[in-house]
Amino acid sequence: MIIRSARFLLTRLLFLAMGLPISRYRKEVEQLWSLSKEVRAESLGQLLARNRPLNSAGSAVGGLEDLRSSLSLSKKQFRNQSTQGREKHGKSGFGRHTAGTTGEPTQITLDRKELARMLAVRDYCFRHHGLKLGQREARLWGRPEVGIKSRLKNFVMNRRVFHPVGPEAKDEVANLLSWKPDYLYGYASLLLEAAQILDGMEMEFDPPKCVVCTAESILPAQKAYISRAFKAPVAEEYGSTEFDVIAFECTEGHRHLVNPWALVENTKDKGCIVTDVSRTSQSLVRYELGDYVHLESSNCTLLGSTEVIHQLEGRSINRFAYLSKDEKFHALEFARAVDRYQSLSGEVFEFTVYQYQYGRFELDTSLPPGKGSLDVSRFVSEYLCDVVGEPVNVVPAGEKTASESFTKKGYFIQAMGPDHEG
Ligand SMILES: [Zn+2]
């Protein structure tokens, strides 16, 4: 226990040595969320007046009024803007890079303050679940990277990466639990994979304090399964490379907006757009995230804003399933159908729906369900027929190429081309 706390303190000291005063910013996060909506808005307005970020038209945004009248910023515009910005300032900081869901890379540059704020928001969320940033993290994040840089980073962050897939999967899960992490963090699909392996192992272990799922859509039944397997509560995180954590689940199950400096709006045509009023290295004004979220006011004051993400969908381009050129329904219905199937059958598996042509959907599952792939396809088909009001053809998926299954984000792959998106 002493070693464990000493290790935690070492990480926090390393943060300080790197010029990242996380506790100070976490207190600022707490303070901002304790303010009334009006007072908080005033404080964010002042920050805008000081930072004056540029909007997509290239004009300075000096307050909330300017923000409201600004057009949204596409990823493409952002890339052009950043290139110009770099030429102007030529300053470098902490880089974050994303291949992006569109396949278009985005380069994010952060100075120390900006990185510290991001980490502070994370620390704020973790504390709600009895964790602290810097405690021992077991990360399920694809294959561990090799090389000194990532080893150093993992050392600083007090984390280890595990990969519970392939022939060594069982050993990997055993190693993970023997390491006694304070919490698990990772992709829902990998956590699910690990949970399934653990389920068949009958291993004694000290449960982690929490399991944090990120980056992928997850169903309630899948979450419950992970929670049972690891004997720990599961919290869902919603974030992006550009902003890091945007929303985090409270212990009551709401996904609260948690970054007080990130103003999140939901638009009909551009999906979710986010402004970071604190950012100075780059201007992120009404930035189009490419996800579709549905925000709702709640009465819950446990974490962050009372505004919560009610529905969360993957990329906006994948939002609709098409029956014909003019008939479509929301891809969310697939998730609901499969969730229902899983609750009824007591099984848990991952799934992906592919659409290559009008009116026909291929359903792929990570494991064949007990009653077979045809059974689940029929169930989803009937479920959708009730929802949509006409027959929906759902069939088991054929073999997928590595690139088809690897590049996926979310459970619905619209593969008919961009011109079908309404
Ligand atoms: Zn809540």
Q: How would you summarize what this structure contains?
A:
This protein has 422 residues and is an alpha/beta fold. It is built from 13 helices and 20 strands.
Structure overview:
Residues 75-104 are annotated as: Disordered. InterPro entries: ANL_N_sf (IPR042099), CapK_Type1_Caps_Biosynth (IPR053158). This protein is of the alpha/beta class and 422 residues long. It has 13 helices and 20 strands. The chain has helices at residues 2-17, 22-34, 37-51, 64-68, 75-89, 112-128, 148-157, 169-178, 188-199, 220-230, 332-345, 373-388, 402-406; strands at 94-98, 106-110, 137-140, 159-162, 183-187, 210-214, 234-240, 244-249, 255-257, 262-267, 271-276, 287-288, 291-297, 307-315, 320-322, 328-330, 351-357, 360-365, 393-396, 412-414. The strands form 6 sheets. The chain has a 7-stranded mixed beta sheet, sandwiched between helices. Strands 19-18-17-20 form a 4-stranded mixed beta sheet. Strands 10-11-12 form a 3-stranded antiparallel beta sheet, with no helix packed on it. α7 links the parallel β3 (137-140) and β4 (159-162). Bound molecules: zinc ion. Zinc ion binds next to loops. Residues 250, 252, 254, 256, 300, 302-303 line the site of zinc ion.
What's the main sheet like?
7 strands, mixed
What structural class results from the helix and strand content?
alpha/beta
The average pLDDT is 84
Strand order of the largest sheet: 4-3-5-6-7-8-9
Strand residue percentage: 15-25%
Number of strands: 20
**Principal-axes shape call:** globular
Poorly predicted runs: 86-91, 98-105
> Helix amount, in percent?
25-40%
Bound molecules: zinc ion
Protein name: CoF synthetase
InterPro entries: ANL_N_sf, CapK_Type1_Caps_Biosynth
Region (Disordered): 75-104
Biased composition (Polar residues): 75-84
